[in-house]
Each structure stands twice: as structure tokens, then as C-alpha cells.
Design a protein that fits this description.
Layout: H1 14-21, E1 26-27, E2 32-33, E3 41-45, E4 47-48, E5 52-56, E6 60-61, E7 64-68, H2 72-83, E8 98-99, E9 103-107, E10 112-116, H3 124-129, H4 134-154, H5 159-164, H6 168-177, H7 182-188, H8 194-208, E11 214-216, E12 225-231, E13 234-239, E14 246-248, H9 250-266, H10 271-295, H11 300-304, H12 306-324, H13 342-356
Parallel strand pairs: 8-13
Antiparallel strand pairs: 1-4, 2-3, 3-5, 5-10, 6-7, 9-10, 11-14, 12-13
């Protein structure tokens, strides 16, 4: 297929493009641009046998065209989804209880990825804000933790897979916009040891650029976690947005979901909502450890040991800062809050605590067993 210029992958042409890469599909109406996409342009395209999701990666951040971004990110996402297809190396991990969407079509030259339409499912943020029963929240955390634990352990030390999901450009971007700027974030928040903590965060970002030990999801935050409450009278989990996946350090996934569960609890509308967010995270960690132990008992230290807990705590601090004083405050839990707002000060304090004393925090205690 000939390369498609960026200008041609648009609302006017995406349906035709989907039909070309997914021959079983016929569009029956105009595409609808999906909300919430920052990195890519995403449409729902109605048609037969069912509507699909089409994702296009321009050579910049879709929501910020002035910021260049390697479109290789979508190539990585497409390769990751292919790993979970029937007969592929990770097919056993894609269970009805927890799985990514099915890849239906792929054009590497555009690049454009066509996936199954999972429907209008709430993401973890929206679902937890409806205050489910704590046992339901724990079950969702359990399913997510089991999946991530099996993913990490199953792919441990797989040199071929490391090449398949190599994603250095996205890690370099994360280092530039997040880890290397932590000192400035903290200084802006008047944290006295901002420089020292910033150096620690920069060293973490540099470490994450080095070869890893397993495949990680890379963007394990609530908006990548969809909850299907109508699945056989229980909860099913769907993991979307694999553009940041790579062969990396398990602590990056663990610290990422930890940061976001903490923020969800902190900004929860009630004490009950705060409780269910914590319940979800505790079960995530417990089931993660159980899955790792079941897959690779000899490597439990590599996924749950002191070094992993230390590193996860550092990343948790960096991620909280990115969502408060950093580049990704807009449109999320602290949107519009001034630095002097009590909620902002509390979040920055928690981030600094994890960066300052990563071995003293008890956030990741359930990993000890």
C-alpha cells in the first residue's frame, strides 16, 4: 500500500482507509472523533460487521501539534496487540477477565491501527467515582494485578521480545518532559531540597533508558483501564493505549498505577470513594505478587524485591508531580488548581516524600508477601 500523507488521514478519509486495511469491514456512516486522546487522533467508525476504532499517529502530539513525537509509538502499540492474538506468544494472557482490544487491521505506512470497538465503557476514574462496592473495586484491582504480573513474569529475560517492543523514543520523551524536570517542578512548589530530589529523578529517568527486564504496559493509569460491568454479571477489564509499552523495568508500571490510585483517593468525593480506590490498589499489588510467584517463583525478587519497591516509589513521586505542578495537570484531577491550593500542596508533599525516602514509605508493602 502506498504511503498516505498525513493530511489524507482525516475525518473525511479515515473510513475509506479502514476499509482498505480491514477488508471484512464496510463503513455505514461518518466517523466520530473520540474525546480524551492526547497523543493520537482516534475515531469510532460505524459499520458492519461492527463499528471499529481507528487510531492514527501524527508526527507530533495530536493535542499539541507544536510538540514533535515519533509516530513509531503506534507501531509499538500494533506489535503489542498482535502478541495477544490467538496463537501468538502472549495469547494465554488475554482472557475474558482482562485483555487488550483485538487488533483488526494495521497500516504501518500511515500509520493507522484498526481495533475492535469495546463500546462506551467507563474508565477506572469514572467507575471508581460512582463508588462501587469495595469488593467490586478489589476484584477489578485483582484482575488488573494478575494480568500485569503475568505479563511481566512471562516476558522476563526474553531477548527477542525486547527487540519487538523496543520503544526508545517514547522513553526519551518521558525523560525530557518528566524525570529531568522534577527539580524545576519541586522548586516551583518551594520544596527546600528540590535540587537533590531533582537529581534523583533525573538518574531514575536515565536508568529507565537502559535495557529492561520484561515487557511493561508503560501507561498504566486509570484512563487506560476500562471496566465492563456487564460481562457475565461481573467485572471485566480492558487495557487500551499501548503506545508507551516497551521492554523496561517493572517498577515503572507499579509506580505509575500507585501514583494514580493515590491521586484518585486523594481527590475522591467522599471517604467511601477514597476507601474503594485504596482497596483496588491493595488488591492489585497482592495479585501482582501472586501472579509473579505462579509464573516465576525463582525471580520473585526481580519483580517484588527491595530494589523494585525503591524504584517504584521514586517513579510514583515523579508521576504525581507531572500531574500537579508538571506538564500534565490540565484535564485531570488537579486541573486548574493553583500551586498554593491545599490539595496541590498535599500532593506535592506526598510526591516529595516518595522521592526523599523511597525505602521508608509503605506504599508497596503488599509486594513483600
Amino acid at each position: 500500500m502506498a504511503s498516505v500523507p498525513e493530511s489524507s488521514v482525516s475525518e473525511n478519509t479515515v473510513a475509506q482507509h479502514v476499509e482498505a486495511v480491514y477488508p471484512a469491514f464496510t463503513a455505514t456512516g461518518p466517523p466520530v472523533r473520540m474525546e480524551g486522546g492526547n497523543l493520537n487522533k482516534v475515531w469510532r467508525v460505524p459499520g458492519t460487521p461492527a463499528s471499529v476504532i481507528a487510531k492514527y499517529a501524527p508526527p507530533h502530539i495530536a493535542s499539541a501539534p507544536e510538540v514533535p513525537l515519533d509516530p513509531e509509538r503506534l507501531h509499538v502499540s500494533a506489535r503489542c496487540l498482535a502478541l495477544f492474538a490467538p496463537g501468538a506468544s502472549l495469547a494465554e494472557l488475554a482472557t475474558p477477565a482482562c485483555r487488550p482490544p483485538e487488533r483488526l487491521g494495521w497500516d504501518a505506512e500511515a500509520p493507522l491501527l484498526v481495533m475492535e470497538d469495546l463500546g462506551d465503557l467507563p474508565d477506572l476514574t469514572a467507575w471508581l467515582r460512582d463508588i462501587p462496592h469495595p469488593l467490586e473495586a478489589a476484584e477489578v484491582g485483582s484482575r488488573l494485578g494478575r494480568f500485569i504480573g503475568h505479563l511481566h513474569a512471562r516476558t522476563y529475560g526474553d531477548a527477542a521480545l525486547a527487540e519487538t517492543v523496543a520503544n526508545p523514543a517514547m522513553q526519551e520523551t518521558r525523560h525530557a518532559v518528566q524525570y529531568s524536570r522534577v527539580g524545576a517542578f519541586l522548586e516551583a512548589a518551594s520544596i527546600s531540597d528540590a535540587e537533590a530530589l531533582g537529581q534523583r529523578a533525573t538518574a531514575l529517568g536515565e536508568r529507565f533508558l537502559r535495557p529492561g527486564r520484561c515487557m511493561i504496559m508503560g501507561d498504566l493509569w486509570p484512563r487506560s483501564v476500562l471496566v465492563d460491568t456487564g460481562y457475565e454479571d461481573t467485572m471485566a477489564v480492558r487495557l487500551i493505549d499501548w503506545e508507551l509499552a516497551h521492554y523496561g523495568h517493572p517498577a515503572q508500571d507499579l509506580g505509575h498505577i500507585a501514583a494514580h490510585c493515590w491521586m484518585l483517593a486523594h481527590r475522591a468525593p467522599s471517604h467511601i470513594a477514597e476507601h474503594v480506590a485504596h482497596a483496588c490498589f491493595r488488591q492489585f499489588l497482592a495479585r501482582y505478587r501472586g501472579a509473579v510467584r505462579g509464573e516465576r517463583p525463582e525471580a520473585i525478587e526481580a519483580f517484588c524485591g527491595a530494589e523494585v519497591r525503591h524504584t517504584a516509589a521514586l517513579h510514583m513521586g515523579c508521576e504525581i508531580l507531572a500531574r500537579t505542578t508538571g506538564a500534565f495537570q490540565d484535564g485531570y484531577l488537579y486541573d486548574g488548581l493553583a500551586p498554593a491550593h491545599p490539595a496541590m500542596q498535599r500532593a506535592v508533599s506526598e510526591a516529595a516524600r516518595h522521592l526523599r525516602m523511597p525505602d521508608a514509605v509503605d506504599t508497596f508493602a503488599p509486594l513483600v508477601g
